């Protein structure tokens, strides 16, 4: 009992929030409601024994002498995994190349962790060698924060996506913009040599996202197809940024492995479902991306919730509190377009889910000041349920399926032999998905690393 108390004291004091090595001594979590990530219904009153960072037993009573933690009334579920985020782009209200620093990236990875996201995939616009170095360090647990995977730079269009204006002074160290198939192959080879996890290609003219502006030039088909072929030659999977159904079809026809966003211009057809199913390609809807365009302008009252307030920079809080900013944001054609895009995205997600397509979990968090690391993932869960999934199905996407997209066998579900990357929640997110905001403990590799989002004094 003293040791149990000691653990919580350690958390309350704000120390012991980071341990580079796993806890050597076993611990038993008692009387927990277990949501294991597979989509199975919650199991009441479970005992989870953790040793050396892994789950070694579920369901059995603890051996005598094992340190215990009573989680009566709480739900334990796997940590969340993002298949589509970005790091090092945003600082306050700026999105700029100069923000790609170790300090800014590690602060974001700590924020993801506090919000229960323990694995983050930064899908392009990363500078090597810093990104490659940080990935290695996060894999080894050298720094506090989420584990990190991703795409080094990625392949954009000359004069097109991702727009130069989106990330100020973004140079060739952050994005390749090949003009020829030969340049595209060289760009892929460079990323492959640096050890990228995937290749990313942007196929979007942004005309429906920014209806007030002229469409951006697209990558030439021979160029992006050469990049895709070269990636596969180097045994790398290709994630493609798409918005429109036609380009989604084209990308899949040439071997795209992951559609990194949902189709938002028109309803998906049976041909797309068949393409996704026969190729086994993944689909990441990123529902909260479009919602982020208007959400805080429409709902400034959420600033009073600590789960929102704490996720924001002081500069963003000031912005959201500014009536003129809210008014001008909501008047923009892009906000109206985003409402339509979200509705279409939700409808398509449900059709593809019911069609048996592999669905991943991502948000594009970290790509703009309005897509908040960690909070965006909580909104994504809520929107998946709004789209028609059950809370258990949404959680399954954000855990087991998200890990499967990344090819990670060691996480995503709570089962014997898996990493003890888990969340303790003062609620039941499998019944009420917004209870994901009630994280009271985050455990990473078997060690409590954060006292989560519930104000102190409420833990047992
Ligand atoms: Zn993105």
Automatic annotation (TrEMBL):
One Pfam family, please name it: Amidohydro_1
Instruction: List residues traversing the bilayer.
Output: none
Q: Which organism is it from?
A: Asaia spathodeae
Q: Which keywords belong to this entry?
A: Signal
Q: Which segment of the chain is annotated as a signal peptide?
A: 1-24
* Superkingdom of the organism of origin: Bacteria
Q: Where is the Amidohydrolase-related domain?
A: 75-436
Give the matching InterPro entries: Amidohydro-rel, Metal-dep_hydrolase_composite, Metal_Hydrolase, Metallo-dep_Hydrolase
What's the protein here called?
Amidohydrolase family protein
């Amino acid at each position: 009992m003293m040791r149990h108390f000691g653990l919580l004291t350690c958390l309350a004091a704000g120390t012991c929030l980071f341990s580079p090595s796993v806890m050597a001594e076993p611990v038993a979590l008692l009387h927990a409601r277990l949501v294991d990530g597979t989509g199975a219904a919650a199991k009441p009153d479970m005992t989870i024994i953790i040793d050396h960072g892994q789950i070694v037993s579920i369901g059995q009573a603890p051996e005598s002498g094992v340190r215990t933690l009573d989680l009566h009334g709480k739900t334990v579920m796997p940590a969340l995994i993002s298949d589509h985020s970005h790091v090092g782009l945003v600082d306050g209200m700026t999105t700029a190349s100069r923000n790609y620093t170790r300090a800014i990236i590690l602060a974001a990875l700590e924020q993801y962790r506090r919000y229960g996201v323990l694995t983050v995939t930064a899908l392009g616009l990363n500078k090597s060698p810093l990104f490659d170095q940080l990935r290695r360090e996060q894999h080894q647990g050298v720094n506090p924060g989420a584990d990190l995977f991703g795409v080094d730079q990625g392949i954009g269009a000359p004069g097109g996506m991702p727009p130069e204006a989106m990330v100020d002074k973004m140079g060739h160290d952050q994005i390749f913009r090949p003009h020829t198939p030969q340049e595209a192959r060289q760009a892929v080879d460079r990323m492959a040599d640096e050890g990228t996890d995937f290749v990313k290609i942007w196929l979007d003219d942004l005309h429906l996202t920014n209806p007030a502006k002229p469409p951006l030039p697209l990558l030439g088909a021979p160029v992006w197809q050469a990049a895709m072929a070269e990636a596969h030659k180097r045994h790398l999977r290709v994630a493609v940024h798409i918005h429109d159904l036609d380009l989604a079809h084209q990308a899949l026809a040439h071997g795209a492995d992951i559609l990194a966003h949902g189709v938002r211009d028109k309803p998906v057809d049976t041909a797309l479902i068949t393409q996704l199913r026969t190729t086994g390609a993944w689909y990441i809807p990123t529902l909260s991306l479009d919602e982020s365009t208007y959400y805080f302008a429409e709902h400034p009252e959420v600033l009073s919730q600590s789960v929102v307030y704490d996720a924001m920079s002081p500069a963003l809080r000031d912005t959201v509190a500014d009536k003129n900013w809210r008014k001008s944001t909501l008047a923009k054609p892009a906000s109206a377009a985003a409402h339509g895009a979200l509705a279409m995205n939700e409808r398509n997600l449900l059709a593809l889910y019911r069609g048996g397509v592999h669905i991943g979990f991502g948000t594009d968090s970290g790509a703009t000041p309005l897509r908040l690391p960690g909070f965006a993932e909580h909104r994504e869960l809520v929107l998946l349920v709004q789209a028609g999934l059950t809370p258990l199905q949404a959680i399954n996407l954000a855990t087991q399926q998200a890990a499967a997209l990344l090819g990670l066998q060691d996480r995503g579900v709570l089962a014997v032999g898996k990493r003890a990357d888990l969340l303790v929640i003062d609620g039941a997110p499998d019944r009420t998905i917004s209870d994901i905001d009630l994280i009271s403990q985050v455990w990473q590799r078997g060690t409590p690393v954060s006292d989560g989002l519930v104000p102190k004094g409420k833990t047992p």
